[in-house]
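As noted in the main text, all predictions were made from sequence alone. Below is one such record, for Bacterial Ig-like domain-containing protein.
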Amino acid sequence: MTGTARTAAALFAAAAATVLVAPSAHASVQSLAVEGSTHVVGGTYTLTAQVGGASGGLLVYFSDNGEFIGAPTVPWPPGSATIDWQPSTPGRHILTAEQGGSTQSIVVEVEEAASPGSGSGSGGSGTGSALLRGLLSGSSSGS
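Prediction:
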């Protein structure tokens, strides 16, 4: 081996050793927040994950009780990733943001949406029911 080849081999070995012992740059999900204080089925809320570390540009995955919410997002502006969340069931929801193996979770209680209107649904005076009974029995008078 010539002197130049030995020098090149030594430099290559030193570079390889440096890469092998260099600390890995990890992504870090620093916090996760959900918009609002009361959450109801069918509402839309923004989830925001604050991310950091040298790998801060990695995709962020959001999940609700282990099920992914939408597509992975790119932190933009840098250090912040957001997604809209629309709960479909009442009860306890564990929301999680994950980036490069780092996770943060929060627990949110979701309530049933309020029923529209407050009518009794009784059909008023009952004439609709009488008419329907008349039609089904073959009478056209509704009585």
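Residues 25-111 form a domain with the Immunoglobulin-like fold (CATH 2.60.40.10). Strands lie at 28-34, 39-40, 45-52, 61-64, 67-68, 80-85, 91-99, 102-111. These features were considered when defining construct boundaries for the mutagenesis experiments described in Section 2.9.
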